[in-house]
Amino acid sequence: MATILVVEDEPDAAEMLAFNLRGAGHEVSLVEDGGKGLKVAQTTRPDLLILDYMLPTMSGPEVCRALRAEPATQDIPVIMLTARAEETDRVKGFECGADDYVTKPFSMRELMLRVQSMLKRRLPSPTSGQQLKAGELLVDLANQTATIQGEEVRLTSTELKLLTMLIRAGGQAVPRQQLLTDVWQYAADSDTRTVDSHIKRLRAKLGPLAHYVETVQGIGYRLAPGSPE
User: Fold this and answer.
1) 109 near 166, Cβ under 8 Å?
2) What is the rounded CA–CA span in Å between residue 181 and residue 187?
3) What are phi and psi for residue 50, nearest 5 degrees?
4) Does position 226 have pLDDT exceeding 90, yes or no?
5) Could you report how far apart the first and last alpha carbons of the chain are, in Å?
6) Where are the domains of the chain?
7) What confidence tier does 86 reach under pLDDT thresholds 50, 70, 90?
8) What are phi and psi of 16, to 5 degrees?
9) How far, in Å, CA of 191 to CA of 87, rounded?
């Protein structure tokens, strides 16, 4: 069972989500307003936030950015729901910090699978005790943390899993579609902008080591520690 906060201003949609999530055994809270949703998320720190894009007082992206700006809430997984299907809107959703983006109308079965996938990423790694090192970057799988020269880099569970995959590839390029299926459990023909947007956020958080994450044109990404060119 997980605690899930649903911030949705359409009553029918909110109740439908709550009914299905509770049926799957989760504890669900409903909020119809962006500003109130932010306060509830800051107070309760749910295991997952399902967030509508268009909301009263604060939009979904504004709520997401506010959560990502605070250490106490920046790792809460966020699935954003929206009727806005344009690519620019999807990119905005990911760039504000959302982990997933679902366009209305959506299949409830698909959404439940994405919820399940998102919650799985918060579970401790089965290889607890193992550490992965790449240059000045260290990932501790037991504690689910990443550090640069002893200083922790605050990553979401999705970003950490993405980084772990790149390190384990040992400098080899990992195709975008492989990242989609292994990190997000998406179908192989899904939108690769998901990967690109998360890579952009990961690089920003790595700061001086952003150059570690290299783009391999026409393929995907690889982790290559070393001096920037």
Assistant:
1) no
2) 6
3) -105, 115
4) no
5) 48
6) 3-120, 131-223
7) low
8) -65, -45
9) 10
DSSP-derived 3-state class of residue 169: coil
Mean pLDDT of 33-41: 96
Bridge partners of residue 147, in order along the sequence: 138, 152
Report d(CA 116, CA 109) in Å as an integer.
11
Chain segment 129-168, per-residue pLDDT in tens? 588 999 899 998 878 889 998 888 988 888 888 999 999 8
Q: The domain at 131-223 falls in which architecture?
A: Orthogonal Bundle (1.10)
Read off the amino acid at residue 219.
Answer: I
Can you tell me whether residue 125 is helix, strand or coil? Answer: coil
Q: Give the pLDDT of residue 6.
A: 96
Helices (H) and strands (E) in the chain, counts: 8, 12
How big is the chain, counted in residues?
A: 229
Q: Structure pTM?
A: 0.65
- Give the CATH number of domain 3-120: 3.40.50.2300
